[in-house]
Amino acid sequence: MSVTDHRRLRVVAGAALLTIALAGCSGLGRTAVGTISYGSANERLVMVSNPLVTGCHSLGPAGATTVTNNTLVDIILYPSRDCSGDESTYLPTETSDDIAPGAPLWRSYSTVH
């Protein structure tokens, strides 16, 4: 191989590694553009701006009785603090929901992305 061939090979390998590294980090720091508002069980209104699209998010220590999703992504509401369990509620973008009488409070949410 000539020097030029080695140089081309290094450039191609470097570009491939850079592409892989950027793809692996693409989800870091991404947010759900907009706000999620919720009424807590102690009648406080809380607004969260641009929450991260990764992980489980708390709806405060008191839990929520009503949630409004004004983000660009759908969310899933959970009565547990760790986004687990079967009693979840799907809340599409630009909608809101209230808990049903006798239902447990929502305590966490995750995004659908």
Please describe what this structure looks like.
This protein is α+β, with helices and mostly antiparallel strands. The chain has 1 helix and 8 strands, in the order αββββββββ. The protein has a 4-stranded antiparallel sheet, with no helix packed on it. The longest helix is centred in the N-terminal third of the chain and has 22 residues, at 3-24.
Concise overview:
This protein is α+β, with helices and mostly antiparallel strands and 113 residues long. The chain has one helix at 3-24, and strands at residues 34-40, 45-49, 57-58, 64-71, 74-78, 89-91, 95-98, 108-112.
How does the SSE layout of this entry go?
Layout: H1 3-24, E1 34-40, E2 45-49, E3 57-58, E4 64-71, E5 74-78, E6 89-91, E7 95-98, E8 108-112
Antiparallel strand pairs: 1-2, 1-4, 3-8, 4-7, 5-6, 5-8
Q: What order do the SSEs take from the amino end to the carboxyl end, as H and E?
A: HEEEEEEEE
What's the mean pLDDT score?
Answer: 85
Helical stretch tally:
1
Distance between the first and last residues' Cα: 46 Å
Spatial strand sequence of the major β-sheet: 2-1-4-7
Can you tell me the residue ranges where pLDDT is under 50 for at least 5 consecutive residues? Answer: 21-26
**Helicity level, as a percent range?**
10-25%
Largest sheet: 4 strands, antiparallel
Cα Rg: 21 Å
For the secondary structure, the number of strands is 8
Which term fits the overall shape?
elongated
Structural class category: alpha+beta
Strand percentage, roughly?
A: 25-35%
